[in-house]
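Title: Comparing notes on inverse folding

I've been comparing how different people in this forum approach sequence design from structure. To keep things fair, I'm posting one structure and asking everyone to reply with a full sequence. Here's the target:
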């Protein structure tokens, strides 16, 4: 199945082959859901920065949400194949990442303080983040993050992924940019050129790039 978020209807489930809407999974506790992630065990996580929580849907039922986030958090969430779930948070205006798994919750901090909540993405199943204030890509190193590279870009992406050839795919508003690790702009795509007239709400990169 394919899942999508609708601010009015809730969580939508579609058949991945036909595209047919299979069901609408509503949650009266939704305030302003803004992100979605699916774990290896098919648990669905819905970030809701207005309620400062993550809603959890497992085995056909809504579970107790993950609570205790600060204002406007989580901004970004991610589930990885190893069973970990990550969500951004902030404390005293500094961003960090919370990791949830069977062993409990761990707060992960960057060596260089994050002024805001970062964007989370996965490279070969490993957590990485994009610091929007410094344009740095950082990788998880134990219980902290170390810089991998710095991108020399003018945009402020809302979504980021990395293709198998190392190219970073970033989206902001109605524009998608493809940038190398050396900050060379390969291409810029304006979705309005295709008469879509919409704002990008997420991106994904296939194995064939």
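Reply #1:
Here's my take.
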């Amino acid at each position: 199945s394919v899942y999508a978020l609708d601010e009015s209807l809730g969580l939508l489930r579609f058949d991945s082959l036909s595209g047919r809407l299979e069901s609408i999974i509503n949650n009266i506790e939704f305030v302003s859901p803004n992100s979605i992630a699916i774990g290896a065990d098919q648990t669905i996580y819905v970030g809701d920065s207005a309620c400062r929580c993550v809603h959890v849907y497992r085995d056909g039922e809504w579970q107790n949400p993950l609570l205790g986030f600060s204002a406007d958090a989580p901004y970004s969430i991610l589930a990885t194949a190893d069973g970990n779930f990550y969500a951004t948070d902030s404390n005293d205006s500094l961003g960090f990442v919370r990791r949830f798994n069977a062993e409990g919750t761990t707060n992960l901090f960057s060596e260089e303080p994050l002024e805001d909540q970062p964007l989370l993405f996965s490279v070969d199943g490993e957590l990485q983040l994009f610091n929007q204030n410094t344009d740095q890509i950082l990788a998880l190193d134990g219980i902290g993050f170390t810089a991998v590279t710095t991108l020399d870009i003018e945009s402020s992406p809302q979504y980021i992924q990395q293709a198998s050839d190392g190219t970073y795919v970033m989206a902001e508003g109605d524009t998608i940019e493809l940038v190398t690790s050396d900050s060379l702009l390969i291409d810029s795509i304006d979705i309005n050129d295709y008469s879509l007239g919409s704002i990008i709400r997420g991106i994904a990169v296939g194995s064939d790039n």
